[in-house]
């Protein structure tokens, strides 16, 4: 190539880049090696509770926010318009048609929709949180060991109870939420097998409203408290706020949150009564999946987030947890060493 041609090509490239920059549409980002790469546009589909649930969806959103800041990706966020497979499929389809790749579905309720839409867009990578039922080359499952984190907060509950009775409020009576209950009960009984663990579920399939029914959660927690429970763990998504309200209104009781550090997001009057939260690091899962895509990983399959990779854990924001942390850390090491295998049922 002659010098004059090279100069002309370079000038054209500079002109094009300047035009794109003026339009505020990023055409590339720069990785640690200094090489340019095409911008990644992520689509994320929340369940019907959407962002603002102070739980599951917000955790996923936090991972996306981190990716936008650190990886310089663009993003489109959407929330399903209705609790139906067709509505969820429309949400995913709209993201894929709009050019998002990867598309991340937040929650196992998207399973059928992912199975349908992934076939329509074979060149788009779909990631789904909490489900591994869809087997396709362009579908990756992001799975979490909720039972392990629940075991740790169960240890705290066993140490904190004065009545010898603790409670569990599950959003929907499904196998996923059973993992939370099973791990929690196992953690409680590892400290004292005589402590009673009572459970209440807010709805059963095909009714999935239990993830967004704080009034039902408040009533369920009140019944548990009336029966003597003085520590209540909630794994109910957006319904958890109802549990916190019931605990705040009862003397000498504690609540344990889920997914994100709910002490940090709770109302001022409720905050002191949230002993800890089981951290399900959906934020890490979402961020790491986007990071893998940016680096060129387009493979389907499944990825597991457990204690070993900081996929689950517990919050320490409330200083009253201090006396119980030694026992929780000992339990963590027993799980990591393989001495304890936490049940999922």
TrEMBL record:
<dbReference type="InterPro" id="IPR028082">
    <property type="entry name" value="Peripla_BP_I"/>
</dbReference>
<dbReference type="InterPro" id="IPR050957">
    <property type="entry name" value="BMP_lipoprotein"/>
</dbReference>
<feature type="domain" description="ABC transporter substrate-binding protein PnrA-like">
    <location>
        <begin position="47"/>
        <end position="343"/>
    </location>
</feature>
<keyword id="KW-1003">Cell membrane</keyword>
<dbReference type="Pfam" id="PF02608">
    <property type="entry name" value="Bmp"/>
</dbReference>
<comment type="similarity">
    <text>Belongs to the BMP lipoprotein family.</text>
</comment>
<keyword id="KW-0472">Membrane</keyword>
<dbReference type="InterPro" id="IPR003760">
    <property type="entry name" value="PnrA-like"/>
</dbReference>
<feature type="signal peptide">
    <location>
        <begin position="1"/>
        <end position="22"/>
    </location>
</feature>
<protein>
    <submittedName>
        <fullName>Nucleoside-binding protein</fullName>
    </submittedName>
</protein>
<dbReference type="GO" id="GO:0005886">
    <property type="term" value="C:plasma membrane"/>
</dbReference>
<keyword id="KW-0732">Signal</keyword>
<keyword id="KW-0449">Lipoprotein</keyword>
């Amino acid at each position: 190539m002659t010098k004059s041609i090279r100069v002309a090509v370079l000038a054209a490239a500079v002109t094009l880049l300047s035009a794109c920059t003026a339009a505020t549409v990023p055409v590339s980002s720069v990785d640690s090696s200094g090489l340019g790469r095409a911008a990644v546009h992520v689509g994320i589909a929340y369940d019907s509770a959407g962002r603002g649930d102070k739980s599951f969806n917000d955790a996923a959103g936090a991972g996306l926010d981190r990716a936008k800041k650190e990886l310089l990706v663009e993003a489109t966020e959407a929330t399903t318009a209705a609790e139906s497979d067709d509505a969820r499929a429309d949400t995913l389809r709209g993201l894929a048609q709009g050019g998002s790749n990867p598309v991340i579905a937040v929650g196992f309720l998207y399973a059928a929709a992912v199975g349908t839409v992934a076939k329509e867009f074979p060149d788009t990578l779909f990631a789904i949180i909490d489900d591994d039922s869809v087997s396709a080359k362009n579908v990756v499952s992001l799975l979490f060991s909720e039972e392990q984190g629940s075991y740790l907060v169960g240890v705290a509950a066993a140490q904190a109870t004065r009545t010898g009775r603790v409670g569990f409020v599950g959003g929907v009576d499904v196998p996923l939420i059973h993992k939370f209950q099973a791990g929690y009960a196992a953690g409680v009984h590892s400290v004292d097998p005589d402590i009673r663990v009572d459970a209440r579920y807010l709805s059963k399939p095909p009714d999935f409203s239990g993830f967004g029914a704080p009034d039902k959660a408040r009533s369920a927690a009140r019944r548990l408290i009336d029966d003597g429970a003085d520590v209540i763990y909630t794994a109910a998504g957006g319904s958890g706020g109802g549990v916190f309200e019931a605990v705040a209104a009862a003397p000498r009781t504690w609540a344990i949150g889920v997914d994100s550090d709910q002490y940090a997001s709770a109302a001022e009057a409720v905050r002191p009564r949230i002993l800890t939260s089981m951290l399900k690091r959906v934020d890490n899962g979402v961020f790491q999946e986007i990071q893998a895509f940016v680096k060129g990983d387009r493979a389907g399959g499944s990825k597991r987030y457990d204690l070993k990779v900081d996929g689950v854990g517990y919050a320490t924001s409330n200083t009253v947890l201090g006396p119980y942390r030694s026992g929780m850390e000992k339990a963590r090491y027993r799980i990591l060493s393989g001495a304890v295998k936490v049940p999922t049922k």
